User: Which sequence fits this backbone?
């Protein structure tokens, strides 16, 4: 198959390119300089030029707190642009895999959210991503919700914890938000397999199995670092002043297709690449 990936340079796009590197399939990875997904004409021209069979939209406004103050701008990227991509995919006969988020839910459920649960976002980021989901689904494409993404080379929670372990004696981390840490390499593999599976379009949940809190995730990272996990201290969300409200529990169920491996096993598998890159960064300073 031939692929087109938007949002090149981002964490997921990088993982997807690594996953596809050995297949020999044609892949066009377009960053914002090459394709502004907000530009309807540019989107149509890009797909007409490259004629992909699969489009994975990794472009998005992911700054949750900034979206609260700039919702219109976030909507242009996370919502309206998906409509342009879906329309352009229809014109060339491509399938769109739209990446979405657990933040389309309010976090009030006592258990994991199945794919057909009713969305009820509590912040601007979730509202704009939900608009993108609806645009993709109206055109008969795929939506893949993921959560708490990390990976080698990313600006993510894992790297923030590694830096904090080096710079701070103690670290306060919220313990009342539950989710599923997901390695970008695992999600990339999930997307490739989904594209080849023959499964019907619709909503799928691309998250690791199991669940934890940010506090539990941080303790696991400290343990892998060989640091004392008791340096991580639990605090409630109310202790942090942040513009956007977060869902208390946005754990996703996997009722339509298989889950990714358990988050703890994935973190251990990712660890050699993460620490190798960190060593390279330290030596380059």
Assistant:
């Amino acid at each position: 198959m031939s692929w087109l990936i938007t949002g090149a340079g981002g964490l997921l796009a990088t993982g997807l390119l690594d996953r596809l590197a050995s297949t020999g399939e044609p892949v066009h990875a377009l960053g914002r300089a090459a394709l502004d997904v907000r530009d309807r004409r540019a989107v149509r021209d890009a797909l007409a030029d490259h004629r992909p069979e699969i489009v994975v939209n990794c472009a998005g406004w992911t700054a949750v707190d900034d979206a609260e103050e700039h919702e219109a701008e976030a909507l242009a990227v996370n919502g309206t642009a998906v409509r342009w991509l879906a329309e352009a995919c229809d014109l060339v006969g491509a399938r769109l895999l739209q990446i979405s988020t657990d933040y389309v839910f309010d976090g009030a459920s006592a258990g994991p959210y199945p794919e057909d649960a009713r969305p009820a976002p509590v912040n601007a980021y979730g509202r704009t991503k939900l608009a993108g989901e609806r645009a993709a689904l109206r055109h008969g494409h795929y939506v893949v919700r993921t959560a708490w993404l990390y990976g080698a080379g990313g600006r993510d929670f894992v790297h923030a914890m590694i830096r904090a372990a080096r710079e701070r004696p103690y670290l306060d981390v919220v313990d009342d938000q539950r989710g599923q840490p997901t390695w970008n390499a695992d999600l990339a593999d999930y997307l490739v397999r989904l594209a080849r599976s023959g499964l019907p379009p619709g909503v799928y949940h691309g998250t690791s199995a199991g669940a934890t809190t940010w506090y539990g995730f941080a303790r696991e990272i400290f343990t892998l670092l060989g640091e004392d996990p008791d340096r991580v201290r639990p605090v409630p969300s109310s202790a942090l002043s942040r513009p956007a409200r977060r869902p208390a529990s946005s754990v996703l169920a996997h009722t339509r297709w298989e889950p990714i491996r358990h988050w703890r096993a994935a973190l251990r598998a990712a660890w050699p690449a993460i620490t190798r890159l960190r060593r390279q960064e330290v030596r380059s300073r």
Residues 54 and 95 are 5 Å apart (CA to CA). The chain has a mean pLDDT of 95. The two ends are 41 Å apart (CA to CA).
